[in-house]
UniProtKB/TrEMBL annotation:
Subcellular location: Cell membrane
Protein name from the UniProt record: Cell division protein CrgA
Single GO BP term: cell division
Disordered as annotated region, ranges: 1-22
Record-linked HAMAP family: CrgA
Membrane topology: Multi-pass membrane protein
Pfam families named in the record: CrgA
Signal peptide residues on this chain, from the entry's feature table: none
Organism: Terrimesophilobacter mesophilus
Length: 80
């Protein structure tokens, strides 16, 4: 005989801190950092090295990749 279970009979799934979904702000910040890093590098190349920060010269590439990398590292902590 088949037994149907209602939602009230199923055990509640409790999530610990590591399994809980991310805060609402997490995804926008993650994607925002990746896009900001990409935009930083594109602006550097399009402006032929005069923007975004002229005094950094070629270090602008490292800054752009650093911002992009922080966003990428956040993807390892993304839970839904």
């Amino acid at each position: 005989m088949a037994r149907s279970t209602s939602k009230s009979e199923q055990p509640q799934e409790s999530r610990s801190g590591d399994d809980a979904p991310n805060a609402v702000w997490f995804k926008p910040i993650m994607f925002g950092l990746m896009l900001l890093g990409l935009a930083w590098i594109i602006v550097f190349y399009v402006s032929q090295g005069t923007l975004p920060v002229a005094s950094l010269k070629d270090w602008n590439i490292l800054v752009g990749f650093g911002i992009l990398f922080v966003g990428f590292l956040m993807t390892t902590r993304w839970r839904s």
